[in-house]
Amino acid sequence: MNNAIYSAVLGSRIEMFRLDVVANNVANASTPGYKADIPVFSAHLDHISKSEFNPYRQALKNVNDYFETSCRFTPGDIMHTGRQFDMALEGDGFFVVQTPRGEGFTRAGNFQIDTDGNLITTKGYSVMGDGGAIVIDTSKEITVTKDGTIFAGTEELDRFRVVDFSNKGGLRKIAGGAFINSAGATAIADPNFTVTQGFLEGSNINPVREMAALVMTGRQFEVFQKTITLVDGINSRATQTLGNI
Amino acid sequence: MMRALYTAATGMDAHQTKINVIANNLANVNTTGFKRSRADFEDLLYQTLRAPGASSAAGQAAPVGQQIGLGTRTASVSPILGQGELQNSSDSLDMAIEGNGYFQITRPNGELAYTRAGAFKRNSDGDITTASGDIMEPQITLPDGVLDITIAYDGTVSVSLSGQAEAEEIGTIQIARFTNPAGLRAIGHNLLMPTGASGDPITGVPGEEGFGGIAQGFLETSNVNVVEEMVQMIVGQRAYEISSKLITTADQMLQSVSQLG
C-alpha cells in the first residue's frame, strides 16, 4: 500500500498531542507560577537510518517517540496583590517546598498558613527556609526583605531557601505548580534573586503563541485528513482501474 | 477521545470560578468590613509519558521529558485580608479596627461569630448590637439617659450621663484574632465562623500586641479595588474565550476524523 497514508496517520496523532499541550497551557492561563510547555517534534527521527525507517511500522508504533515537551522557564508577569503571604521571586531560582516525592521547587508564591502557623503552598506542601519548614508568628506584622529574610515585627524568623539549576530540562512537573528534580539537574550555589512581598508571579503563557499554535494544529490536522482521503481515492482508483484491465 | 477537550473544559471551569469571585467582590464594593477574595489555581496531574533523562531508543539520555498536563483546578478561594480604608462617620457607635482582630458577636443560637463590620446599633435594652440585632460579646449595656459615648483605642467604653460631671466606665470591648484568619468561614451578614483551618480564637484587649486598636466614629470600607477587579475580569474572560476556542478546534478535528470513512 501507499506509505503516505501512514505518514498522515502519524501526523494526525502528533497534532492531537500538540492540542493536548496547548489545552493545558491555556487552562493554566491564571495559575500563579505556571510555566508553559512547548511541544517539540521528531528529535528522535534523526537517530533512525533511512533503511530502518518504515512509515507503516512507525505510524503504529508508540507515537511518543516523535514528541517531547520542553518547559519554558521564562518569568511570568509579576503583579501587585497586596496580600501579606504572596511572594514573587524576581530573577533566577525556585522556592523549595516539601512534597510527598521529596524536595519540590516552585515559583508559585501564593503561600498560606495553616492552623499551626506553618507556611504552606495551596497544595499544602511546607515551604522550606534555611532552618527547615517555615513557621510564622501570626501575632506580629510579617515583613520579608529583598534577600528573602522573614521578620515577625523586629525578630528574624527564617530565610526562604531559594535554589536554581543549570540544566532545568531535568526538572519534572508534578501537580500543584511544583517541579521535582528527577534527572539530576545541577544546583547552582548562589542564585541571583530578590523576593518581593505582596506581589505574585503569574502564568508565563503567551496567548498569541497559544492561539497561533491552536490555529496551526487545527489546519495541520485538516491537511493530514485530506491526505488520507486523497491517498484513499488514489488507491481506490488504482484497484478499480486494475480491475478493468 | 481527546484529552484536550477535557483539559480545555477544566480551563473554562476555573475561569468561570474566577469571574464568580470577581462578581462577588464587585457586588460588595460598598459593604462595610468586606474582604475581597481571590481564586487561586493550580495545575492538575501530569501524564509523564517519558521522564526527562530517560534513555531513548537510540540509547541516549533525553534532555527533556514528555509530560502532558491535564488542566487546572481551583485550589482555593481565600480572602485577602488587607486593611480597608477608614471612613469617617458621625455615629458614636461606629467602630473600626485598626490592625488585626475581629469583633465578637453572639448569634441567636448562642454561638460566637466574628466580624470587622463595626456599624453597631443599640437595641431597646441598651445593648450594643449589630444591624441585624445580634449582641456584641462581651455584652455592653448603655444606661438610660446617655448624653455621650466615648470608646477609647483600648476598647474602654465610657458614657456621660445627664446630671453627672464625671464620665462613667461601663465596660471594655474585647476583640479576637486567629492564627490563620484566611481560614475563617464566611456565613453572610458580614459574619465569620471559626473552622479547623483558622484555629481557635485568641481574645484580647484592643491595642495590645497582636491586636488592632478601636477607632470610634470610623467604619472600615471594603478592601475591594475596582480597577484591579476589572483587570482580572478581562484576564478571566479572555482565558475563558481561548479555552472555548480550543474545544471548538478539538471538535472540528474529531469531526474531520468522523468524515474520513
Characterization of the model:
- The complex is a heterodimer of chains A (245) and B (261).
- Chain A has helices at residues 4-27, 55-60, 207-244; strands at residues 37-41, 67-71, 78-80, 87-91, 94-99, 102-106, 112-113, 119-120, 126-129, 132-133, 142-144, 149-152, 155-159, 162-165, 171-174, 178-181, 187-188, 193-197, 199-201.
- Chain A is of the alpha+beta class.
- In chain A, the strands form 6 sheets. In chain A, strands 5, 6, 9, 10, 14, 15, 16 and 17 form an 8-stranded antiparallel sheet that branches. Chain A has a 3-stranded antiparallel sheet with strand order 11-12-13, with no helix packed on it. In chain A, strands 1-2 form a two-stranded antiparallel ribbon.
- Chain A is elongated and about 95 Å long.
- The mean pLDDT of chain A is 85.
- In chain B, β7 and β8 form a beta hairpin.
- The longest helix of chain B is centred in the last third of the chain and has 33 residues, at 226-258.
- The model of chain B has no long low-confidence stretch (mean pLDDT 90).
- The interface between A and B is large, with 75 and 78 residues.
Fraction of residues in helix of chain A:
25-40%
Rg of chain B: 27 Å
Helix count of chain B, per DSSP?
A: 2
Mean pLDDT level of chain B: 90
- Beta content of chain B comes to 25-35%
Our count of helices of chain A gives 3
Could you tell me the strand content of chain A as a percent range? 25-35%
Alpha carbon gap, first and last residue of chain B: 18 Å
Q: What is the helix fraction of residues of chain B, given as a range?
A: 10-25%
Strands of chain A, total number:
19
Average of per-residue pLDDT values of chain A: 85
Order of helices and strands of chain A: HEHEEEEEEEEEEEEEEEEEEH
Give the number of DSSP strands of chain B. Answer: 20
